[in-house]
């Protein structure tokens, strides 16, 4: 099939929920994608922080082939070996004790966390009034009705009212505002270690520790949404591991399955115990196939020095981007951690993104003016150099036209 034909069929038969670029990809390897016309692209989007190990990592492909020939799906009515091992691995890599619930996406993982804290708070404190969750302005937690309500951005909620009761928003990186917002109704605080969709907003170094302290003082559950920051993206397996704290609950999705859909909600035992048979479920959640793939993703992260490369390449890319920024008045700031990096512009980022695409580099823009760089964590120095060279040319082009 030709690219134009695919776009035409898609426009006719697929719901118009995404503003798509006119690109159709056919093949991916490592940091590169090839489109239907055979053009090669360096991928600094990675399915929005999904393909952390690059496209079609050989170990991931091997597991997919092997496991799909053995067992793809059985119901959660039965015990599942790879699910048990994945739960163990996630808990042992993160909390003192805990249990996992598996689902299929970030929104579902957050939905599960929200349900769990409501049930925990109702039953533990024997109160129907302790259900409110405080989330942050400019946060992003998903697209279900509950998670758009949790999301502190009006644009995602508009048109879908009535929303779910029990959410309150405060400004990010502001513990005073958070303190003021806590009431007798509050049961939890939900926060991203770095806001991804909200513009790659990195909070102060002590922010998460202060939030943890407040939660401890007030008996609130701390939920960390690690859907974008998790699975090595910031240079540690989980974003909170840059700090001294542990959350009570965290959620994962995106990078966990190496491209195969999976989400996870992990909670410490004291809270996890409040989910009992019948409390929550997902038909596909944690099936044998996807959990085997996620186990391989974790094994590759451990054995192939992925976190170290992410940290080193993150520093290298940040330095190079800061160098580029000096040459353009419309670049306001470069910020991020590991390979979750944003470049804030004082102009719309669309033209820079388009110029990069024409030159064979895929980057993304969030909040209209923040270029976001999400290369695979296996990226090499040469590939970073290639991307920065292309970006530099795109910035010159946009600067000459504006
Ligand atoms: C922090 C965060 N939470 C939740 C989600 C929603 O994940 P999903 O699209 O898999 O439902 C996203 C997606 O971008 C995210 O970045």
Overview of the structural elements:
One of its GO terms (biological process) is L-arginine biosynthetic process. The modification N6-(pyridoxal phosphate)lysine is found at residue 254. Its cofactor is pyridoxal 5'-phosphate. One of its GO terms (cellular component) is cytoplasm. It is found in: Cytoplasm. This protein is α/β, with parallel strands linked by helices. It folds into 2 domains: 3-57 and 305-401, Aspartate Aminotransferase, domain 1; 71-303, Type I PLP-dependent aspartate aminotransferase-like (Major domain) (Aspartate Aminotransferase, domain 2, 3-Layer(aba) Sandwich), CATH 3.40.640. The chain contains 14 helices and 15 strands. It has helices at 3-13, 46-49, 58-70, 81-92, 106-124, 145-150, 154-157, 175-181, 207-218, 269-272, 288-303, 306-325, 350-358, 381-401, and strands spanning 25-29, 32-35, 40-43, 99-103, 132-136, 167-170, 186-191, 221-225, 249-252, 263-267, 331-337, 340-345, 361-362, 364-366, 370-373. The strands form 3 sheets. The chain has a 7-stranded mixed sheet with strand order 4-10-9-8-7-5-6, sandwiched between helices. A 4-stranded mixed sheet has the order 1-2-3-13. Strands 11-12-15-14 form a 4-stranded antiparallel sheet, covered by helices on one side. Helix 4 runs parallel beside helix 11 (288-303). The longest helix is centred in the C-terminal third of the chain and has 21 residues, at 381-401. The chain is globular. The model has no long low-confidence stretch (mean pLDDT 98). The protein binds pyridoxal-5'-phosphate.
């Amino acid at each position: 099939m030709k690219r134009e034909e695919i776009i035409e069929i898609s426009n006719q038969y697929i719901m118009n929920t995404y503003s798509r670029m006119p690109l159709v990809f056919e093949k991916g390897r490592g940091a590169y994608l090839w489109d239907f016309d055979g053009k090669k692209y360096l991928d600094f989007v990675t399915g929005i922080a999904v393909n952390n190990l690059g496209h079609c990592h050989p170990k991931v492909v091997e597991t997919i082939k092997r496991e799909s020939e053995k067992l793809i799906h059985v119901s959660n009515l039965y015990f599942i070996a790879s699910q048990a091992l994945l739960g163990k691995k996630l808990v042992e890599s993160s909390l003192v004790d805990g249990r996992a619930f598996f689902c299929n996406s970030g929104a579902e993982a957050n939905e599960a966390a929200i349900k769990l804290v409501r049930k925990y708070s109702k039953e533990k404190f024997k109160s129907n009034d302790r259900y409110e969750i405080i989330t942050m302005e400019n946060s992003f937690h998903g697209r279900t009705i509950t998670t758009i309500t949790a999301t502190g951005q009006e644009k995602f909620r508009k048109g879908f009212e009535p929303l779910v009761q029990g959410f309150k928003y405060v400004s990010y990186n502001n513990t005073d505002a958070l303190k003021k917002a806590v009431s007798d109704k509050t049961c939890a605080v939900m926060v991203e270690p770095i806001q991804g969709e909200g513009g790659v907003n990195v909070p102060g170094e002590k922010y998460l520790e202060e939030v943890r302290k407040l939660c401890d003082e007030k008996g609130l559950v701390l939920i960390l949404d690690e859907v974008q920051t998790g699975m090595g993206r910031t240079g540690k397996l989980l974003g909170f591991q840059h700090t001294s704290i542990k959350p009570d609950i965290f959620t994962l999705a995106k990078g966990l399955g190496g491209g195969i859909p999976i989400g996870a909600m992990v909670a410490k035992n004291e809270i996890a115990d409040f989910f009992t048979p019948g409390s929550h479920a997902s038909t596909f959640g944690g099936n044998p196939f996807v959990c085997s793939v996620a186990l391989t993703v974790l094994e590759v992260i451990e054995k192939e020095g992925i976190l170290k490369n992410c940290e080193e390449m993150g520093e290298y890319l940040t330095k190079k981007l800061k160098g580029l920024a000096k040459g353009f008045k419309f670049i306001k700031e470069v910020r991020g951690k590991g390979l979750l990096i944003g470049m804030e512009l004082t102009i719309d980022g669309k033209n820079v993104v388009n110029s990069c695409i024409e030159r064979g580099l895929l980057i993304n823009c969030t909040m209209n003016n923040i270029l976001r760089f999400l290369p695979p964590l296996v990226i090499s120095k040469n590939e970073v150099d290639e991307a920065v060279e292309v970006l530099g040319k795109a910035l010159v082009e946009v600067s000459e036209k504006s």
